[in-house]
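explain this.
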Amino acid sequence: MALDGLTDSAVRDLLLATRRIAVVGASDRPGRPSGGVFAFLLGRGYDAVPVNPALNGRSLQGVPSVATLEEARPLDLVDVFRRSEEAGAVVDEAVRLGARAVWLQLGVVDQAAAERARAAGVVCVMDRCPAIEWGRLGLPARIGG
């Protein structure tokens, strides 16, 4: 079983039901995984918003970036590209702002934050990448399609 305890079916359902994703830590630097995943999400039809105070107002893949998670609302899912020791604060803010789910990227693990999210009724995916899961689960070329 995966570190987050989620089944393939649960991850599939989450990816297919989600429409808006805030990508915390999105980067405009070539070769950075956060930029690649952001482009992947846009290409799959998601309404994705880059969240990075260093990029505030600059366009990433044609989408204006915002400085804070609050500016990215409404939130279906918050995809977190932060170090494990910084992820908990992002998870807590996502829960406070009404996100339905949080997704901690590969290598990002915070069991205590995941437990807090789940206690608040928020799905928490951990130590996974949506681009990898998309292919592994054989999902369609685009959401809704």
